[in-house]
Amino acid sequence: MEIAKRIHPQEIGLFSNIGLGNxxxxxxxxxxxxxxxxxxxxxxxxxxxxxxxxxxxYFGVGSISWLESEYALMNPKNIRECNKKGLKIYLWEPLSTxxxxxxxxxxxxYTSWSDxxxxxxxxxxxxSIQYYAQINGLTNVQVYSPSYNSKLFFQDIYPELQxxxxxxxxxxxxxxxxxxxxxxxDADKIIKKFWCGNWRYASHxxxxxxxxxxxxxxxxxxxxxxxxxxxLEQNSTFNLPNKDDLYRGAAILDTMAPLSMDIDVDKKLxxxxxxxxxxxTNPKNAYAECFCAIVNETRYAEPTGLLTEKIxxxxxxYRPVIMVGPPGNLEYMRAWGFMTFDxxxxxxxxxxxxxxxxxxxxxxxxxxxxxxxxxELKEIYEDMNHVLLHxxxxxxxxxxxxxxKPITKNNLFKRIRYAD
Length: 420
Hints:
By secondary structure, this protein is an alpha/beta fold. It contains 16 helices and eleven strands. It is globular, with a radius of gyration of 22 Å.
């Protein structure tokens, strides 16, 4: 394991209520530390305020370097307390996976997985936690991850840990200002077919945006980046379906960029550039003009599902969704208590584990919706009003339920954990 340089755990986003080893004061308060501290304050206002047993929260992504350092040796008293009461480790971000047989795959945090790879799957965060448990003789470590199906894929690989899908990171329903985010549920406002937001570059987002712009002009779209067939091909993490369509669309995107909704962007970016915006940004009018939202999640070609503020923003704006994310994301939504839209269109793409085939099915759904007239889509929208209203009001209900009890006693979290 790597030896971490002499830093304070909070400098890498690691917060705890128990001594984790030889800790000293941080050398400086960085903007990132200030951001994590702010998030920690928000988290402490939720159900988490009732957690009294030993815990650790990790807000970062990837390996937890401090836990692998020479300084991460607990004193005997803390070890005894953790083994008696349990040490709960809460991961804010989804697991960062890699292929243990592929050295070249260990450079990034997003991995493309196929069914044949799953036996080689490992997670950087779990590697660090398992190492820490081993060197300290910890025998009662629970890891709560927001990655859906994390227990299915990882429990046998990391037998020293107790792994559950319990998304402590998805506290947006408990902290967001619902009234500020609330959009319009009005079929008369619909004049376009698709809403498609893309802020940070990702290959699956590039893929969807390229397909969309060469199939229709009926959309509200954000796309800030240089685009061509070569960029699309080089960055793809799965075999591209409908390549001719995608190559044509990638060229069209390049002539249109930068496109944004509600925020002015004056120059085209390369894929490594990024403009930071707050997660509360909400282009209400852009949503209201469109029949459905294409929700391009943070990650796509992975085995474990995840939900972020992107899906919640669509629900607060009363939109049906096409979910572009890992397999099982819609299933994950239903475990949370939300309703999806299989009564009106094909959602079989959600359980397709082959990433290329899943994208092809998503394209087919885009084509099906695009084949409908605006008037037809208005009728469908009115027919699904009860689902749209349920999803929005359920977010308000979650604001209460996420404050009720700690993670091990809250029935909502138990339901999600057992669904996993």
